[in-house]
Amino acid sequence: MGLFSKDIKSMDDLFVHTLQDIYYAENKIVKALPTMMQKASNPALKKAFETHLHETENHVARLDEVFRMHGTEARGVDCPAIDGIIEEAEEVAGEVEDPRVLDAALIAAAQAVEHYEQTRYGTLVAWAKELGRNDCADLLQKTLDEEKATDKKLTELALTKVNLQAAE
Ligand code: FE
Ligand code: FE
Known about the structure:
It is built from 5 helices and no strands. By secondary structure, it is an all-alpha fold. Helix 1 (11-39) runs antiparallel to helix 4 (99-130), helix 3 runs antiparallel to helix 4 (99-130) and helix 4 (99-130) packs antiparallel against helix 5. The structure holds fe (iii) ion (2 copies).
């Protein structure tokens, strides 16, 4: 998409553009999660990252399916937002020495990612319905539900284990 050409002409174009944005983001997250898993010390947190890595691979597959249902080629467009969130996470993680404090930093970073995904999927579900594509909306909703559940799980881990240990 060019800066001076206006390539998004309809709601449908905007829907596809946003699909491409989250497609790029999900692929980035698939690459970032193994590192986060490796950096985490708390076993429950490690496990949560591992579980979500598998879910995230499935989010990419679901997007492939939505593109296919829509009749559009599956591809990503640069998403500076997710690049920024991941870059900041890496920067902060690089500054932390204490493994328990690092766990807290990793949770905070992961929750920023999950919240970004939720805004995108929330919008995509609404637009898919508006465009009369309830089939696409149903698939996108499944992913949205998993992002929400992951965010909730991370909050629980933070409140019950990780932050308490980090503050000791
Ligand atoms: Fe995802
Ligand atoms: Fe996610």
